[in-house]
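[job 4471] stage=fold_predict status=RUNNING
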Amino acid sequence: MKPNRSKSFTIIETLVAITLFLILIISFLSALWVSFDYLRRVMEMRTAALVLQEEASIVRNLDYDAIAALGSTFTSSGMASLKDASGTIIKSPYNGYPNILKITFEIDWTTFGGKPASKTIVTLMTDHGINKR
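[job 4471] inference complete, writing structure tokens
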């Protein structure tokens, strides 16, 4: 007599299949989470860069004397989407030239993950205009 063989799965085969399926699902969800986290960081950096460029454009349109009289902080409506954002303007002479200002714009914020982040841009301004000696 031949043994009666069933065409159904055994418990071991079912457990192995479920385990492999769970590993695939967890891997997919982890990759998805990392992708969304990366996208969020890129969007924060893009927002910070746009805020800095906007502030630099505003300052570049000012007279040299008005720039020298600027305060050391700035705010922008674009900073509202960044958590705990603060903007700083640092003015310093450029390489000892009295008529050239090196203007550094910096924005600091807390990322969605709670880590500190910052972005900086620098421009030169002379008493003759933008980026001229």
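[job 4471] summary: Residues 11-60 form the longest helix (50 residues).
[job 4471] exit 0
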